[in-house]
Each structure stands twice: as C-alpha cells, then as structure tokens.
C-alpha cells in the first residue's frame, strides 16, 4: 500500500484531528517549547503541523510524495492552518543550515540509522 493510499483511507475528520493531537500531546509540548521555526519531515496528514500553526509557530512541512502533500494541503485549507508545505527529500533539504529551531516527525526517523538522522538535523 502506498503512503498516499494509507492517508486517503484515514481521511482527516475533525474528530480524528482532535484525537491525534491528544495522542501526541507530549511530543507537541516538547516541540512547542523548542522554538518558533519548526520543520516537520514526512508530513502525512499534516495535522500536527496544522495544530502548531494555529499556535502562531512558523511551520514548514515536507514530504516527497505529491499525493500525500496534496492531501495535507487540503487538510490545511479545511482546518484554516498556516503551514507551508514543500516537496523535498529529507536527506537533501532545500534549506540553509540552522533554518529551524526544531525538526520533528512521527513515523519517519525510526526507519533510518543515527548517522542518517544526524545528516538530516544539520
């Protein structure tokens, strides 16, 4: 199953959005206390980034899958978020070093080695 199909089957209703925010409360508290400029890698539904954008954080969220990005942008519009979505490769980021105060993801980093993750967090 593709990531696009995975997220399509789990479309983001308001109830799912709120439940997901609640489930990720510890992560969100950590992210929100780390700085104003936030990067989410592998956006998925975009719901955590959308929530953070409502708290006045500058949020950029990337993914390398056009279909996933399209769904996240749709969710962002429906939930009146302020996220900037970009198509990008996590290991070849189109940003200057130190552009973000914090980088986070849910369900991405565990697929890579510590050395790969250090490259990403430059």
Describe this structure in words.
It is a single chain. With 122 residues, this protein is of the alpha/beta class. The protein has a single domain, classed as 3-Layer(aba) Sandwich (Rossmann fold). 43% of the residues lie in helices and 15% in strands. Strands 3-2-1-4 form a 4-stranded parallel beta sheet, with helices on one face. Helix 5 links the parallel strand 2 and strand 3 (84-87). Helix 1 runs parallel beside helix 5 (66-78). The longest helix has 13 residues, at 66-78. The relative contact order is 0.19. The model has no long low-confidence stretch (mean pLDDT 85). This is Methyltransferase domain-containing protein. InterPro entries: Methyltransf_25 (IPR041698), SAM-dependent_MTases_sf (IPR029063). Pfam families: Methyltransf_25. Residues 38-122 form the Methyltransferase domain.
Could you give a quick summary of the protein structure above?
The protein is 43% helix and 15% strand. The protein has 6 helices and 4 strands, in the order H-H-H-E-H-E-H-E-E-H.
Strand fraction equals 5-15%
The level of helicity is 40-55%
The CATH class designation is: Alpha Beta
**Strand arrangement, major sheet:** 3-2-1-4
Q: How is the biggest beta sheet arranged? A: 4 strands, parallel
The outline comes out as: globular
Could you spell the SSE succession in H and E letters? Answer: HHHEHEHEEH
Specify the CATH homologous superfamily: Vaccinia Virus protein VP39
- What structural class do the secondary elements suggest? alpha/beta
How many helices does DSSP assign? 6
Mean pLDDT: 85
Sequence stretches where pLDDT stays below 50 over 5 or more residues: none
What is the first-to-last residue Cα distance?
31 Å
